[in-house]
Amino acid sequence: MALRTATPPVERRLWGAEIEAKLRTLLLERPVMTLGVYWPFQAEFDPRPLIDWVIAQGFAVALPAVVDKKGPLEYRAWRPGKAMVDGVWNIPIPEAREVVVPQAVLAPLVGFDRQCYRLGYGGGYFDRTLAAFSTRPLAIGVGFEMSQIKTIFPQSFDIPMDVIVTEARIRRR
């Protein structure tokens, strides 16, 4: 995280444009009705321009909300202009509790390895969420190439991403 936050914002924006282009290609290959996205936090890839594009394509988006600190996230339908409230870590979440099941979800990467396992912020929310879905959505890890590490030393509860997208490439499991 220190490397990411130390990177000049202009460089992160350039990388973000590369990531967005790759995500658009990926989503055109495998269209979804609802894409689970996230609100950017601590210099992560900012998916908000992608959200606008997804909506323009006629698809819906949903944002994750923590409803139980030991349980899975719930995804709430959202569109620009809909009311938001502060959630955990003061990350905005949709105020309306319109729960949906996305066909694909973006997950921010603090770190990732060659086997497509991801490091998040340590709460285990995303792994619990993937495990709880009756039909698992396409799991897309999104982050910067500098975040690749040799291994995250995956535990039994860790669930690998199906795809990891960075400014440099698309990795498929």
Structural topology:
Layout: H1 2-6, H2 9-29, E1 34-36, H3 48-56, E2 60-66, E3 73-78, E4 84-86, E5 92-94, E6 99-100, E7 104-108, E8 111-112, E9 118-119, H4 125-132, E10 138-142, E11 163-165, E12 170-172
Parallel strand pairs: 1-2, 1-7, 7-10, 10-11
Antiparallel strand pairs: 2-3, 3-6, 4-5, 8-9, 11-12
Structural category = alpha/beta
Outline type: globular
Q: What is the terminal separation in angstroms? A: 24 Å
- The proportion of strand residues reads 25-35%
Q: SSE order in H/E notation?
A: HHEHEEEEEEEEHEEE
For the largest beta sheet, what order do the strands appear in spatially?
Answer: 6-3-2-1-7-10-11-12
Query: Sheet with the most strands?
Result: 8 strands, mixed
The number of helical elements comes to 4
Chain oligomer state: single chain
3D architecture notes:
The structure is a single chain. The relative contact order is 0.19. The mean pLDDT is 92. Helices cover 25% and strands 25% of the residues. The protein is α/β, with parallel strands linked by helices.
Features:
173 residues; alpha/beta; 8-stranded mixed β-sheet; two-stranded antiparallel sheet; 4 helices; globular
Structure described in brief:
The chain is α/β, with parallel strands linked by helices and 173 residues long.
